[in-house]
């Protein structure tokens, strides 16, 4: 009987580990989906036009996805994608290249490759697209 209890415990532990692996959350974290773009001067005067063009270009290229959540902080913008997070830099670069041909007044910019932590100082959108 003692052997059976040990066997049952071993089987139970194995099943628990197997189920935990199946139930793990495969969604990306919010940090995995955020890109910061820094501008060398203020874009306040063109921010509305810029955002409209950004979303139009994004939806033309990725029609089945929601657009990113966008936040402007001083001379930076944060884009938090809900889809294709693994391609966040490539998508941002591609769209900015397209927009720079459309908006003559677009200042020089750089796309940061730093890991961005969501916060009140950056961007802090939440939702079902992300696991945190």
Describe this structure in words.
It is built from 3 helices and 4 strands. With 132 residues, the protein is of the alpha+beta class. It has a domain at 31-111: Alpha-Beta Plaits (2-Layer Sandwich). It has a 4-stranded antiparallel β-sheet, covered by helices on one side. α2 (47-61) crosses α3.
Work out the number of β strands: 4
| Structural class category | alpha+beta
Strand content: 5-15%
- End-to-end span in angstroms? 45 Å
Backbone CA Rg: 22 Å
**Any low-confidence stretches, pLDDT <50, length ≥5?**
none
CATH class of the domain at 31-111: Alpha Beta
Read across the widest sheet, the strand sequence of neighbours is: 2-3-1-4
* CATH architecture designation of the domain at 31-111: 2-Layer Sandwich
Helix-strand string: HEHEEHE
Biggest β-sheet, characterized? Answer: 4 strands, antiparallel
Instruction: Give the integer mean of the pLDDT values.
Output: 85
